[in-house]
Structure formats: structure tokens, C-alpha cells
């Protein structure tokens, strides 16, 4: 089921006891269970299970944003032949040493060399060839006179300025020699790097592929948005939230949508998906309810851990793998809480860094800034809190100009206007475990999410 | 043809005279032509021609990153019915005021309400119903006792704690009332905003669509990367560079690749594309050469301007529109220089902001930082210079911890290792028009590009 509690309603975020054993222990919402892990410990467990996906070769058109799994070497010298850096005339410099506006030197034009030409007319002393930018320098020529220093003649040309030595000649291999490394394994393929691979004469590159990520919401109350709802039903929003977040993080989202609280249905779906995706992200069904379908299906596998994490929201967290087959390891499984804020925070804190590692990216984490708190709030002791905040830059009257401010995205407490408030947040303020009151004027670390 | 000059080879970056009129005027590379515009003037001309694309309705799955062209209102109250925020028992609070661990109160359980149920059994005094998170509160009940405060009984349940008034009941409309605005027109659809629209009961949204952008390299010397090259030929890299940059900016790139320096071929291609794309980005063929095909085809239209811009690189810039038909305005046309660094800088400075405006995004420009220069360089007077730089953060020993540093991405001058150097740059340092020497220790503004 979807855990639709308020993210700050700590009592719901209790350590998930095993419902089947009818434990009657009351877990204080504000004190983590002895076995609870810190966020850092949980993240270390997640990242220790994740390595860049096995490299595949892709065409350059599909390579943007992916990470190289090989060095890219130039196929030929770059440029591959001496060529003109200007539109003008290829010349023998010694013919023109005395040229000046007062004393133009007029010479016969024996060829017209456009870019792309394969022609290579040999210049004899006293001859020139018209040449366009990028065209190969003909044998015998040793400099280029720019068009502006001539009368632009077609059959004969008057030249009014002596060229410098090797003027406007781009030498073969000037940018790179054949076999030079132009890109390193591990580089993220920004547009300029895609271009560098193209320029090196490469049509495809070996990269870590984007992970395919199935996204499933669980809960018999969930219907597709826009469908009519009867009493008891609400629209599924988590599969949209998490699919969009997967895509933004560089993954390929396979949005399955909502499935009912039915163990057999979920088990069959996961088994079917296991062969075709790298990651499965579930939300809902991980708490203490009678119909916590995700726990019911995954716990017996023995490969998914449901240890609580000392964070708020997001305390119940399932992480592991679908069982391996003889052919392949099973996909990673993240079982997130069903509350949208809890699911989103859990995604940002655990799933997104894992996706970055699957992609082979060197930077796993979002950028953080320090910000001054505007309106304070409370935080549970013993748990790191992630508070959705609106981050603004405000002129502060000092010479430095601006200060960065953070205020909770939901007015009137983080419980009300929950999804609408989250939608305005541009960051998550990170409250350390030991803090209980965040006050206006406090300086806090904020993970920027947009 | 591709303008393959060095980006710092100022002499090539002369004001593009009309070759056909055989102007013999020598234009000093370091002094802009009288008619040259500043970067700000050129950008103002570009942006004045660009408005957000006409809205279209898209499914939520296709909406991420696009900008809303309508307010999104909730279809029903959110939540649409009173529901439980906890797994536990729906109760009549007045039955339980004296409950305590020492004095449990045991009551009959008349129903088991799962999330998604449409059941609504009316509680009479002394009765309770088992209820899961998200399930509707039955008529008569006015509070929820969490499972932890009970013996989890199925037919009868012992309750050890009195609930507070309306405890753990989420009220219908608590987050939003039907008709409330949850998202504003003009909002960028981040993942959490896609989720807010879903949660509001919306399956599709009215957005400004992503612009379709055709990308064409011109130059008879260009071949597809990976194809064998003969003397005179080089791989096309600009169409890969600019297509990837378009995609990164949020556009839909239609990479046409390289076309030869043939007026008829280019004219026919542009005419064919005009009906199916919003923007055409060309590179090469905008300078003073005899085969400057882009200028030759576009200038006679009268709708594309080739005014020089006081910048380096990127001085020759074509901007305008393909002629309108009775049905529609023609696509925007950007004719960029062919040198890869010039093309990239021109894209970042003019094309990318235009694409952001077509998308309806509120922020048109890249983030800038101030950085301390490590290795200096020279800049032409009278022209704003955009120098590809590597930006790093370095501990500086002060309390603030780090300082941001910028060094030219190409060692040994910006001409050598041109494409490979550009591929390492993470920003463009912006040198003002009047500066001629940038020295180590200078503080400079850098546009961050990755």
C-alpha cells in the first residue's frame, strides 16, 4: 500500500517490525531502533553493491551524457594534411618578399583549390594557387596570402603584402598525431567531447550504458491519473515522480505504474522484469501494515534488506537484488516508502547516487550549498532530516552581494500541502542527526535538486 | 566550407565583406567594422525574434523538463476523502478516553479496511474497524489508534492508549481543495512537479513543446566520422557537437550531417526542412571565401542578417528566418562559423538562450561564477572574448576553504589541440571588450558549461 502519512509524522516512520511475529513492542518514533543504520552506512552498503554497467559500443549520436569505457585515440593526424587557415592564395614565400601596396607583385594563378578537393598541383617558382580555408596546401607552396592582401584575381593575382614564414598554414598533426589520446576512459561525453571523438575519426565509442530502471508504485488504492476515482481511490503520482527523477538522473525509465496489493501479481511482475532491467524501484508496501506487499514478496527472497535508516523521512528502506540466475545477476532493487516526500528523499539520497555509479560517472552526488535558514522548524533527535526547501539568493547589502537563503517549501508545517509544497522545493536541507531545532539565521547545508 | 581557422587567428575573423563586390578594403582584424554589433546587441536582436512555442497538450510521461502553459488545478479535493495516516484501528475517540497500558480497553472489530477499499461500514459506539494507511475513515469514526498501541487483534482488539482528537486522520481537502492551483503556468516541470500534476488527477498538461532543431554542417571537405578519408577530407564534427548541445539544452536535435558546398543542394535541403523544424542551425560557409555556400543561399532571401559581432571567436554570425509561407512563419536560422570553437561559443552565446526562450523557460542563461585566472592570455581589443577554460575548486587555506580557478583549456595557446582542448573545458571565461591582457591572479567571470 502507499504510505500516505505526513513526512513529519514520526510515529508512522517507526522501525518496521516484522508484522508476522506479532511483536507488541512500542517503538518510540523519536528513538531509532538499535539496529538502525546511519544514512552514510546505508549509502555505503548501496554503493558497495553497485559498479558501472558492462561497456557497450554505441554510435556517437547516442553517446551524449554517457561515460567512456575506453580511451579515444585519433585515427589519423589532425588535421590529416597541411591545409589553409584562410581564404586566399597558396604561394612560394620567396617569390613575394618585396611585395607591398606600393609595389604589388602579380603572379599567374595555376589552380583553384576548394575545400574538399583532392587536387595537388605542384607550384613552380612564380606560380600561385587560389585556395579556400581547409583546402590542402599544394606541393611546393609554403605560405598562404589572405584574400584581403590581394586584388582577388582569378587568372593572375596582384599581391600587396609579403607573407610571414608558413603564414596561415595549418600543419598536418598540429592538433594531434595519429594514435594520440584525445579523450580518456572515464570522461563524461559532453557535447564538446562527442565532437572530439568525431573529429578524431571515430563513429562509435565504448561506453557504460544508461541503466534501464523499472518504476512500480504499489497500492490497491492507486489509479492512473485522469481516471475516475471512487471512494477509497487516489491517483498514482509516485511512478511519475520516480520515472521523471530516473530520467533526469540519466537512466532509462520504464514506468510500469501502479500494481495492487497482491503478492502474486507483484511477484510475477518482478520475475518478468528481472531479465530486462538493471534496477527496479518500488514505492509503498515497506512498512508495518497488514498488506505490505513489497515486504511480503521480497523478504522471503533473503536478498533484500529492510533495515531501518536513521533519517526522516525515509526511515523504512529496502535495498538488495532480485535473485541471480545462471545467466546474470538480478537487478538491483530499491523499495522506497510510499509517501511521496519520503519516496523522493529516498531517491535523492540512495537511488540517484547508485544510478550515477551504474553510469560510471565520476561525481555521484548533487551539488550542495550553505544557506541561511529563514523560517525554522523542528527535527527528530537521532535521525538525519531532509527538509524540502526553497532556495533563493538575496542581496544582503554587503560587498559580496548576495546570501543564499532556504525556507521550508510547505508553509504551515511540512505536513500540509504536501505534494504541492514538494513541487516548489529546489533543494533538500540536510539536518544532522543530533539537531532538534533549526532556527531562523542558522546556516545549513542544502542539496540542490534543480 | 568549414572555417577551420584557429579561434585566436584574428585575421581570419575579419568582418565578412561581400565577396561578390570585390571589395579590396583590408579590414584590420583587431578593429571591428563600424557596423559591428556588441554581443549584447546581437543577443537582443535574437531574443526579440523568439517567443515560446505554441502550447500543445502532452501526456505526463512526456512532460518532464517542459514548461507549463496553463495553471494546473486539482480535479478533486486532495486527499479526496478522510483517510488514515497510519496502520491501526479507526475508533470513536470517546470510547477510549480511559485506555492505558494498565487499563486496556477491548472492543469488537467490525471491519478490515484495506487501502483502496470502497467499503464504508458505519461504526456504532463501542465498535472499531481495522484500517490501513490511506484507507477511507468509516462513518462514525473520529480518530485512528496506531497498531503499536494495540494487541493487533483481528476479531477483538485491546487498546492501551487514548487517541488525541482526530488523531492520524488526514482530512479530505487537507492538501488542496478541488479547483486549487497546484502549479502555475510558467513552471518548469521538474520530477516533483510532474508528480504534483499526477496527484492533482491530471493525465496531460498544456506545455510549450521542445523545439525541433535541424543541424547541418556545410563543407565539401567533410565526411562522416569513421568513413575513409582521402587527401582534402576531414571528419564532420560540428553536426555532432551542435546536435548534442541542442539536446543538452532541451531541444530535439535532427542531425542532418554534412552537405557539400553546393548552393542548389543546400537551398533544396533548407526548403524541405522548413516545414518540419522550428530552428535550423548551420555551421560553416559564413565568411569571405569564394564557396561560402550558406551566405550565398541565405543572403538573397533578405530575411537573414550577416552582421559581424564584436566577439572572438564567433565574429561572423548569421541570424534570421527562412521565409514565411501562408501557413506558418519560417524556422529560425542560425548560421554559425565553421571553426568548432567558434561554432560552440556562438551556440552557447546566442542559440542556447534562444532555445530556452522557445521552451518558455524562465532562466535563459547559464550559471556564471567568478574565478581567479591561473595562466593568463591575450584578448583582442574592441571584442568580447570567450575563452574555453578548465574550472577547478582549490583549497586556498582561508576559512572559506576554496577558491575557484580558471585556466585555458588548451595548453600552448588556444590554437593548438583545438578540439581536444575544447573537450576538456568546463566553462567559457568572458573577457570584456576593452581588456587586452588577462593575467594570472585576475578575477574573471566564467559561464559554466558542464
Automatic annotation (TrEMBL), chains A, B:
Coiled coil: none annotated. SMART domains: MoCF_biosynth. One of its GO terms (cellular component) is cytosol. It catalyses: adenylyl-molybdopterin + molybdate = Mo-molybdopterin + AMP + H(+). InterPro entries: MoaB/Mog-like_dom_sf, MoaB/Mog_dom, MoeA-like, MoeA_C_domain_IV, MoeA_C_domain_IV_sf, MoeA_linker/N, MoeA_linker/N_sf. Residues 214-357 form the MoaB/Mog domain. Residues 1-27 have a biased composition (Basic and acidic residues). GO terms for biological process: Mo-molybdopterin cofactor biosynthetic process. Pathway: Cofactor biosynthesis; molybdopterin biosynthesis. GO terms for molecular function: metal ion binding; molybdopterin molybdotransferase activity. Residues 1-29, 394-416 are annotated as: Disordered. Keywords: Magnesium, Metal-binding, Molybdenum, Molybdenum cofactor biosynthesis, Transferase. It is an enzyme of class 2 (transferase). Its EC number is 2.10.1.1. Its cofactor is Mg(2+). It comes from the Bacteria. NCBIfam families: Glp_gephyrin (NF045515), molyb_syn (TIGR00177). Belongs to the MoeA family. Catalyzes the insertion of molybdate into adenylated molybdopterin with the concomitant release of AMP. PANTHER family: GEPHYRIN, MOLYBDOPTERIN BIOSYNTHESIS PROTEIN. This is Molybdopterin molybdenumtransferase. It comes from Cryobacterium gelidum.
Amino acid at each position: 500500500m502507499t504510505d500516505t502519512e505526513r513526512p513529519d509524522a514520526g510515529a508512522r516512520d517507526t522501525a518496521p517490525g516484522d508484522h508476522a511475529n506479532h511483536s507488541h513492542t512500542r517503538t518510540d518514533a523519536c528513538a531509532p531502533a538499535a539496529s538502525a543504520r546511519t544514512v552514510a552506512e546505508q549509502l555505503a552498503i548501496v554503493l558497495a553493491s553497485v559498479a558501472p554497467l558492462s561497456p557497450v559500443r554505441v554510435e556517437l549520436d547516442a553517446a551524449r551524457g554517457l561515460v567512456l569505457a575506453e580511451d579515444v585515440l585519433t585515427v589519423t593526424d589532425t588535421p590529416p594534411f597541411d591545409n589553409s587557415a584562410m581564404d586566399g592564395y597558396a604561394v612560394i614565400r620567396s617569390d613575394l618578399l618585396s611585395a607591398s601596396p606600393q609595389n604589388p607583385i602579380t603572379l599567374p594563378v595555376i589552380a583553384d583549390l576548394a575545400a574538399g578537393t583532392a587536387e595537388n598541383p605542384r607550384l613552380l617558382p612564380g606560380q600561385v594557387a587560389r585556395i579556400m580555408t581547409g583546402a590542402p596546401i599544394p606541393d611546393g607552396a609554403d605560405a598562404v596570402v589572405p584574400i584581403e592582401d590581394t586584388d582577388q584575381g582569378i587568372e593572375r593575382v596582384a599581391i600587396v603584402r609579403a607573407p610571414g614564414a608558413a603564414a596561415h598554414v595549418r600543419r598536418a598533426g598540429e592538433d594531434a598525431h595519429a594514435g594520440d589520446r584525445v579523450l580518456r576512459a572515464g570522461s563524461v561525453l559532453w557535447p564538446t567531447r562527442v565532437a572530439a571523438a568525431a573529429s578524431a575519426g571515430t563513429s562509435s565509442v565504448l561506453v557504460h550504458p544508461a541503466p534501464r530502471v523499472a518504476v512500480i508504485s504499489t497500492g490497491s488504492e492507486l489509479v492512473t491519473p485522469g481516471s475516475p476515482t471512487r471512494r477509497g481511490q487516489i491517483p498514482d503520482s509516485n511512478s511519475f515522480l520516480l520515472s521523471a527523477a530516473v530520467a533526469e538522473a540519466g537512466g532509462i525509465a520504464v514506468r510500469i505504474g501502479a500494481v495492487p496489493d497482491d503478492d502474486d501479481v507483484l511477484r510475477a511482475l518482478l520475475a518478468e522484469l528481472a531479465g530486462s532491467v538493471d534496477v527496479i524501484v518500488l514505492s509503498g508496501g515497506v512498512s508495518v501494515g497488514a498488506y505490505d506487499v513489497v515486504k511480503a514478496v521480497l523478504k522471503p527472497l533473503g536478498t533484500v534488506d529492510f533495515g531501518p535508516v536513521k533519517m526522516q523521512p525515509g526511515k523504512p528502506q529496502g535495498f538488495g537484488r532480485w535473485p541471480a540466475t545462471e545467466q546474470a545477476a538480478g537487478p538491483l532493487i530499491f523499495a522506497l516508502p510510499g509517501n511521496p516526500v519520503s519516496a523522493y528523499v529516498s531517491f535523492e539520497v540512495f537511488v540517484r547516487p547508485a544510478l550515477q555509479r551504474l553510469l560510471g560517472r565520476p561525481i555521484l552526488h548533487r551539488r550542495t550549498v550553505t544557506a541561511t535558514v529563514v523560517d525554522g522548524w523542528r527535527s527528530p533527535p537521532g535521525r538525519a532530516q531532509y527538509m524540502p526547501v526553497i532556495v533563493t539568493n538575496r542581496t544582503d547589502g554587503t560587498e559580496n552581494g548576495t546570501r543564499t537563503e532556504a525556507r521550508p517549501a510547505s508553509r504551515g508545517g511540512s505536513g500540509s500541502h504536501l505534494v504541492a509544497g514538494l513541487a516548489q522545493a529546489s533543494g533538500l536541507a540536510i539536518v544532522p542527526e543530533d539537531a532538534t531545532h533549526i532556527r531562523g539565521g542558522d546556516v545549513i547545508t542544502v542539496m540542490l535538486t534543480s
